[in-house]
TrEMBL record:
Protein name in the entry: DUF493 domain-containing protein
Species name: Algoriphagus winogradskyi
Matches recorded under Pfam families: DUF493 (PF04359)
Stored InterPro entries: UPF0250_YbeD-like, YbeD-like_sf
Length: 89
């Protein structure tokens, strides 16, 4: 199964147009139950809010973090993409 290609330049342009940096950015991910610690490891200095799905198979994770520039946001998404089963929202 091919993953949808990530258009880094287009995403960076949208981030740059979203306002001034540094800015508070909200990350949202869905991961298989048991993988939430891998998401939390991407944000060692931030609180990660988690919520289990009704069936218990998945966990949603929400993190608000102050980001210095669009490149920092993209780097986190690239690292998160390495987590098996992760969905970025």
């Amino acid at each position: 199964m091919d993953k949808k290609k990530f258009d880094k330049e287009n995403f960076k342009e949208k981030l740059e147009a979203s306002g001034e940096f540094p800015q508070l950015y909200m990350f949202k991910f869905i991961v298989p139950n048991g993988k939430e610690n891998e998401v939390a490891a991407l944000f060692p200095k931030h609180e990660v809010s988690t919520k289990a799905s009704s069936g218990g198979k998945y966990v949603s994770a929400t993190i608000q973090a102050m980001m210095k520039d669009p490149d920092q946001i993209i780097k986190i998404y690239e690292e998160a993409a390495e987590i098996e089963g992760l969905i970025s929202l």
